[in-house]
Amino acid sequence: MVEDDKKMAAFVARALRAEGYVVSVLHNGDEALAALLGTSFDAAVLDIMLHGRDGLSVVKQARANGNHTPVLLCSARGDANERIEGLNAGADDYLPKPFVLEELVARVRALTRRGGERTTSVMRLADLTLDTTTHKAERGGRLIELTAREYRLLEYLMRSTPRVCTRMMILEKVWDYHFDPGSNIIDVYIRKLRDKIDVETEVKLLHSVRGAGYVMKEES
């Protein structure tokens, strides 16, 4: 989600997370382009009017670099010429502002289905797989039963690998908290997740980084 209005971005991100999506929020066009080129996303919701690069420039440059992430462009300027320009730049869909939140969520859902037809929905790390369509996790052929929150945590950590995720990053992306509640909620869920994915195997995938956070990586 790339939107320079932070309140709007938080509002939309909260709605998408309620639908089960793991959402990264950015407010700058240059950051958006770097994220698209450096990370795998199922879809991008991109405002046109941004600080740094504008949304059209982000889409054009991403496509020029071979990135095929489905993109939904949003803009307060809903005239036909801008819609045509956005679609010609490589966007997959266009939604004028103000929009109904339910319509944005429906369009994102359609884009992720469409994107799944072109690219695999299965994430892999060593012998661990996570299907982002069915929310099914397996390790070495063993099915792993996950709660909704455990799934969101695992997907976020796998998407972030090999980057270390801080506690604050996890709280924002998985719990939608923008403050530390001062509880051990993350430690509890990390322990639950580790017990499920690293049980009875010599190769551990979920690691604690002292003083920093947590990271998913293959390590004996």
Question: What does this 3D model show about the protein?
Answer:
- The mean pLDDT is 87.
- The chain is built from 8 helices and 9 strands.
- It has 220 residues and is an alpha/beta fold.
- The chain has helices at residues 6-18, 29-38, 55-64, 80-89, 101-118, 148-160, 167-175, 185-197, and strands at residues 44-47, 71-75, 93-96, 122-125, 128-131, 136-139, 142-144, 204-209, 213-219.
- It has a 4-stranded antiparallel sheet with strand order 4-5-6-7, with helices on one face.
- It folds into 2 domains: 6-118, Response regulator (Rossmann fold, 3-Layer(aba) Sandwich), CATH 3.40.50; 122-219, Arc Repressor Mutant, subunit A (Orthogonal Bundle), CATH 1.10.10.10.
- Helix 2 packs parallel to helix 3, helix 6 (148-160) crosses helix 7 (167-175) and helix 6 packs across helix 8 (185-197).
- The protein is elongated.
Question: How do the helices and strands line up, and which of them pair or pack?
Answer:
Elements: H1 6-18, H2 29-38, E1 44-47, H3 55-64, E2 71-75, H4 80-89, E3 93-96, H5 101-118, E4 122-125, E5 128-131, E6 136-139, E7 142-144, H6 148-160, H7 167-175, H8 185-197, E8 204-209, E9 213-219
Parallel strand pairs: 1-2, 2-3
Antiparallel strand pairs: 4-5, 5-6, 6-7, 8-9
Helix pairs in contact: 2-3, 6-7, 6-8
CATH architectural type of the largest domain: 3-Layer(aba) Sandwich
CATH topology category name of the largest domain: Rossmann fold
Mean pLDDT: 87
Compute the CA-based radius of gyration: 18 Å
Query: CATH H level of the largest domain: which superfamily?
Result: Response regulator
**Poorly predicted ranges (pLDDT <50, ≥5 residues)?**
none
Put simply, the count of helices is 8
The rounded distance between the terminal residues' Cα atoms is 36 Å
SS content category: alpha/beta
**Adjacency order of strands in the biggest sheet:** 4-5-6-7
Proportion of residues in extended strands: 15-25%
Task: Estimate percent helicity.
Answer: 40-55%
